[in-house]
Structure formats: structure tokens, C-alpha cells
Amino acid sequence: MPAGFHEVRFPLDVTPGGRGGPEWRTDVVTLGSGAEHRNARWAQSRRRYDAGYGIKTLDALHTVLVFFEERRGRLFGFRWHDRMDCRSGAPSRTPAFTDQRIGTGDGAARTFQLVKSYGTGYAPYVRRIAKPLAGTVSVGLDGAALPAEAFDVDTATGRVTLAQAPQAGAAVTAGFAFDVPVRFDTDALGIDFAAFSAGVIPAIPLVEILD
Fold first, then answer.
1. Please, which contacts does 123-129 make with residues 24 or more away whose CB atoms are closer than 8 Å?
2. CA distance 14 to 63
3. What is the pLDDT of residues 47-100, one digit of tens each?
């Protein structure tokens, strides 16, 4: 059975208790003088989570067990709701079509990839957003909102296709809510039921799937 992706979210009643966030891979070499040389090994960050913190009852554990079995362990990916970073702007604010610039018109291109930028002054990081939530994407052109019928969104890839190509130089912007594509980072759920009964939280590692 080949690997693939299931367009389904990790159980929402467990997700709020998860923990995790982005990581980078950086080589740091310290010279004899004490000076450092630092080199980035990854071109993009990768997120890791532990879903075990959301499991408080045997019923919740069973729900995750069913989900894990259907994913065949690490074989199939799925969606994860990252409460800290799940919108084009701040988590507490409703997405607006002006939140993120996703492209510039050239008079011919109609398809643009959803992205989210982090930082503005020194070295902004632009992250590709592949799993927007259906019904949450709004698009703007040079500061004016486009009607829903003027664009189409592929929620499996994060690509936005406009009905008409924007004129050269036109700013294409978007607002959206999104999930993170992840997979289990283990093929075995080793749950110690005695420890679970005593309140010990099981570890259920997840890792972001990057293109």
C-alpha cells in the first residue's frame, strides 16, 4: 500500500491538549578563538507535535487508537490543528484578505500559492500553506476584496486560481485559516496502561510533512 494523505483532521477533542512547534536544523562550529560559524542545513522549518498531552481518558485514547490504525502508523498523513499558528494573522483575529501577499500579477498567471510570511525587517521567512480550511479563504487584488465567484481554492494544495489574470504589478493578497499536514512519527503506540491510570501522559509524536 503506497503512502498518501487523508484529508481528515486529528480528533479535535484531543488536539487542544497537544504541544509542539517549529524547529530548524543549524550547524554551529566554535573555533579555538571562541568565534562561531553558523550554517542553516534546512531551507524551511519543520514542526513537531506531541498529541499525547490531549489524552485524559480511555475513551480519548481509544479514539486516537482508531485514528492511528486507519493511518497505518506513519504511512498516511493527515491534518493537524495548531492552535498557536492556524490563521493568516494572529490566532485571535478573523482572517482578512489583506493579511498575506501571495503574489504579483504579470498579466498571464492566474494561479497563486497561499503563503504566510514571518517577520518583516531582517530576514522574513515565507512558509508555503498547503492545507487551508474550506470556506475561510478570502482574496484581494490591489487592496480590493474579490467576490467569492472570482476565485477558486484547492484545499488539498493551497493553490488559489483567479477567474481572470491580474494585470502586471497588481498585488494579490489573501486571508485564511489552515491546518498543518502531518504524520505519526512512530509505527507503534506503546501505551503503559498502569502508568496511564496513574496520570502519566503517553507520548504520541507527530511530524510535519514537507514537500
1. 125/44, 125/45, 127/44, 127/45, 128/44, 128/158, 128/211, 129/158, 129/176, 129/178
2. 9
3. 999 988 777 778 888 888 899 999 999 999 999 999 999 999 999 999 999 999
Residue that the C-alpha cell 560559524 belongs to: 37
Tell me the chain's radius of gyration from C-alpha atoms.
20
Pairing of strands 36-40, 4-9: unpaired
Residue-by-residue DSSP string for 7-40: EEEPPTTTGGG-EEEEE--EEEEE-TTS-EEEEE
Please state whether beta strands 4-9 and 76-80 pair in parallel, antiparallel, or not at all (unpaired): parallel
Query: How many angstroms separate the CA atoms of 62 and 189, rounded?
Result: 11
Cβ pair 140, 197 in contact under 8 A:
no
Contact at 8 Å (CB) between 54 and 16?
A: yes
What does DSSP assign to residue 74?
Answer: T
**Cα(127)–Cα(118) distance, integer angstroms:** 8
Tell me if residue 193 falls in helix, strand or coil: helix
Instruction: Select from 154, 107, 164, 111 the least CA-distant residue to 133.
Output: 154
Choice among 5-14, 35-44, 169-178 with the minimum mean pLDDT: 5-14
CB 181 within 8 A of CB 161: no
Q: Which three cell numbers stand for residue 84?
A: 498557536
